Amino acid sequence: MTHRTEPRTTAQDTAEAAQRRERFGTLPERIRPEDMVETSPATLPDPARDRYHADEWLVRYCG
To answer: Which portions of the sequence form the region Disordered (predicted)?
Structure first.
């Protein structure tokens, strides 16, 4: 039984490796963490939305 220490390479293998190295040989440009966060101003709360209404249960359950 014979063991080969180096795999056989053909011209097609080396051409594919060169294409792969050209495409994936470098990492993409680094993105700063500051550029990954989007900020937007907060909206003012609507005072009528959370206002308590004493007779609301009458409208909900009896109306």
So the answer is: 1-48
